[in-house]
Amino acid sequence: MARVYNFSAGPSMLPLSVLQKAQSELLEYGSSGQSVMEMSHRSSVYDAIIVETEAALRRVLNIPDNYKVGFIQGGASTQFAMVPMNLMTTGEADYLVTGQFSGKAAKEAEKFGTVHVVASSKDKNFTYIPDVDAVEYSPNASYIHICENNTIYGTRFTKLPQVDGIPLVADMSSCILSRPTDVSKYGLIYFGVQKNVAPAGMAVAIVREDLLENARTDLARPAMLDYKTLIDARSMYNTPNCWSIYMMGLVLHWIENEVGGLTEMEKRNNAKAQLLYDYLDQSSFFQNPVNKADRSIMNVTFASPSKELDAKFCQEAAEAGLVNLKGHRSVGGMRASIYNAMPLDGVQALVAFMKEFEARNG
Ligand code: PMP
Are residues 334 and 207 in the same domain? Predict the structure, then answer.
C-alpha cells in the first residue's frame, strides 16, 4: 500500500485509523450480519449509530442543550438557501463577503429577501478579513452571515461579529472541529462534512432552538428544506446519508479518544500551519499573499515566481507523493489543505520538498 499525502481542499484525507475501523466493519457491522451501507435506517442497529453520532458531536463541540442538530443532504450549498428560507424572518439579512462561498451564499439569499453586503474583501482579492467591529450592521437584519474559514483564499475570522439580538450564522465547512468553538456565540452553524468530518454527501446544521421555533412563516417551504421538519424527525424524515453519518461518528471518536479533544486538535493544527507559514515567511521564492493576522490554519495558499514553476511544482510534488496541491482556478498558485487528518509528517514532507524545489529552481 502506498498512501499519498493528500492536500485536497475536499473531499480530503480521513484519519487512517478511521478508514481501518470502517474497513474492519465493512462486511459486518457488530453482529448485525450486514454492512452499514445495507441496513435499514429504521432499524434499531442504525438508530444506535445516528444517536451516538449526534451525542459524540455534542460532546466534542460542547453543544449547549438549547441547540438542535440536523444531518441534511445537499451539501453546504443547500444551506445557502435553507438559511434565508428559514431564518430571514424580517426579509433582510447582513452578509460579509470574504470569498467565493460567502458570495454564493449572499447571491442565493437574494432570492428570498434583501441582502445587505455590509463588508467585503473583494477589493484585495479576498486576501484579508474585514474588521468586524468597524462594520455597520443593519438594525433590521434577521441574522448576520459569515463564512468563517475561506477555503479558496486561505483566510479565517479570528473575531466574530456579535450584535445584541441578531444571531450569527456561520458556514464552518472548512474549519469545523479544527479547534474549540463556543457554540453559544452563534444562532446557526452549518458545514459540509467532506473536509474535516466525513465522506461527501451531507451537511450538518446546529441551530438554536428559538430560531427553529420562530422560523419564517411567509414562505411555503418544501419539507426537505425546512429545518424544523427535518430536525423534529431526528434527521430521518426521509432516508438520510447513513454511511456519512456512520463515518462522522468514527471521526468524532478519533478526535475524542485518539487525539484527545478539540484543544489538542487545535494544538496539532497550529503546529502544522506554523511549520508551513514559517517556511513561507523566510522564503524568497514562495509567497503567501494573505494578511498575516487572517491566515487560515486549514488552507495555506502560496505561489512560486511564475505560472510555469507553479505547474512544475505541482507535477513534481505529485510524483513525490504530495498530491492535490494545485490552487483553486480562481486564484492560481498552490494550496495545501491541512485539515485535521493531515499528519504533521505530511506537512514536514511538504516543507522538505518545497526547500529542495526552491534550491533547484530559485
Ligand atoms: N462553503 C465552504 C467554505 C466550502 O469550502 C465549500 C466547498 N468547498 C462549500 C461551502 C460548498 O460545499 P458543498 O460542495 O458541500 O455544497
Answer: no
- 171 grid coordinates: 458556514
Mark whether 236 and 324 lie in a shared domain.
no
Tell me the pLDDT tens digit for each residue of 124-165: 999 999 999 999 999 999 999 999 999 999 999 999 999 999
| Statement to judge: residues 332 and 204 lie in one domain | no
Q: Would you say the CB of residue 173 lies under 6 angstroms from ligand 1?
A: yes
Calpha distance 310→119 (Å, rounded): 32
Gap from CA of 45 to ligand 1 centroid (Å): 31
100 within ligand 1 shell (Cβ under 6 A): no
Could you report the predicted ipTM of this complex, rounded to two decimals? 0.99
- CB-based contact 227:101 (threshold 8 Å): no
Type of residue found at 134: A
Q: Quick count: other Cβ atoms within 10 Å of Cβ 287?
A: 15
Question: pTM higher than 0.80 for the full model?
Answer: yes
119, part of any domain: yes
Last residue of a domain, one of 208, 243, 258: 258
In this structure, the answer to whether residues 65 and 210 fall within a common structural domain is: yes
Ligand 1 atom closest to residue 75's alpha carbon, by position in its atom list: 15
Residue nearest (by alpha carbon) to ligand 1 atom 10: 76
Residue 14 in domain: no
Please check whether residues 267 and 339 belong to one and the same domain: yes
Q: What is the pLDDT of residues 301-343, one digit of tens each?
A: 999 999 999 999 999 999 999 999 999 999 999 999 999 999 9
Q: In this structure, which residue's CA is closest to atom 2 in ligand 1?
A: 173
Locate 326 and state its grid cell: 494545485
Stretch 186-215: mean pLDDT: 98
288 lines ligand 1 (CB under 6 A): no
- Helix, strand, or coil here: 329? coil
Q: Report if residue 102 sits inside a domain.
A: yes
Residue 75 in contact with ligand 1 by CB distance below 6 A: yes
What is the 76 CA–ligand 1 centroid distance (Å)?
5
Residues 214 and 321 in one domain: no
From 12, 77, 98, 244, give the residue whose CB has the most ligand 1 atoms within 8 Å, as the site to mutate. 77
Instruction: Check pocket membership of 155 for ligand 1, CB cut-off 6 A.
Output: no
- The kind and range of the H/E element at 24 are helix 16-24
Q: Which domain holds residue 345?
A: 262-361
* Residue 192 alpha carbon, nearest atom of ligand 1: 15
- Sequence-distant (≥ 6) Cβ neighbours of residue 250 within 8 angstroms: 18, 21, 22
Residue 15 lies in a domain: no
Query: What is the grid cell recorded at 108?
Result: 442565493
